[in-house]
What does this fold into?
Amino acid sequence: MSSFPTTTREVRLVAAPDGLPTPADFAVADVPLAAPGPDQVLVRNRAFLVFPGLRSLIGGELASASLPTVRPGDPVFGPALGEVLAAPAGGPLRPGDLVTHLFGWREHAVAEAGAFTRVAGDFPDPLALLSPSLAGYGALTRATRVGEGDVVLVTGAAGAVGTVVGRVARLLGAARVIGTTGSAAKAKRLTEEFGYDAVLVRGERPIAEQLAEAAPEGIDVLLDMVGGEQLTAAVDAARQGARFALIGALAGQLDPARRGASAPAVVDSFRLVVRDVTVHGIAGQRYQDLEPEWLERLAGWLRAGELTVPRTVLAGIDRAPGALSRLIDGDVFGALIVELRD
It folds into this structure.
C-alpha cells in the first residue's frame, strides 16, 4: 500500500451558519488517509455535486431525514464520481473502474465495496450521473404518470433536476412544458435548448399572472422544486385530475430567515378537493429501485442526442467552500459540480 497516498483533503463545516451559509463556514482540511482494509475499496474522486439540500443538513433543524445532519467539525458529504485505486481481489470492483458514491467533498474515499456503484464502461457521459434526476424521472413516470397531451409545469427549471426533466417530460409525450426560473437569460436557454415551450421569470410579474398566460386552460402535472408562491400559483392553475409531485422546497431552504428545514406555502385546499388533485411528496431516496431503468433510458437518450445534462463546473477542491453560496445566489445553470485535479 506504500504507493497509495497517506494524506488527503476534505471539506469540513467549521461554523454553524448564521442565516444563509457563507464560504467562511467551510474549510479545506488536510487529513490522514487510512490504507484500505482487506474488504475495503480506495477511490480517488474526480468530481462531486453541490446540492441545495446541504443547506438543510447544516442548518441544525433537520430532526429526521434519510441523510445525517452535518455539524461544525464534520466533513461534508454528497454524491461523487471517482476512480477505484484499490479493491479486494475477487470483489465486484477493479482498479480503474469508475464508481458513484456519497463520499463527496473530499479527494479520496475509503469504504466497503457496497458503498460504491460501478459505472458501466460504455456509459456516454459519466458526469451526468451526478445530476440528481432519478427523483424527477420517478415523479414523471410513477407519481404523475405524465403522458400524451399533458401540460406540465416544472418549477426551478434551470436547476440540476429541472434542466433534465423538462426534456424528459417531452420525451414521455407531454404536449406543453412550462418552467420557472430567476432570470431572463436562463429562460432563454431553457426554451432554446432544453425543451421548454414557455418559461416564467420570477420577479418580473406575479407567477400566477404569467402562468395564466402560458397555460390558459391550466396544468395537468406539476414537478415542484421550489414551493412558496410558485406552488400557490400551480394549485390555482390545476385542471381536473391534476397530479402534483413535490421534489424540493427551495423557497424555504434558501430563505435567510429560516434554517433550511421548513417551507410554508399558502395553497387553496378547496381547489385541491374539487379538482381531485393528487399531491405526492417525493423523498430523496424514494425511487432507488428505479435506478437501473433510469440509467438505461438516460444512456439511450444521451447516445441519441435527445437529452443533455448541463452543469456548471468549478475546478479544484479549493473552490468548494464557496460553492454552496454560489448555488444559493443562483449563479448556476444545471448541476453545480466541483471537479478535482489529479
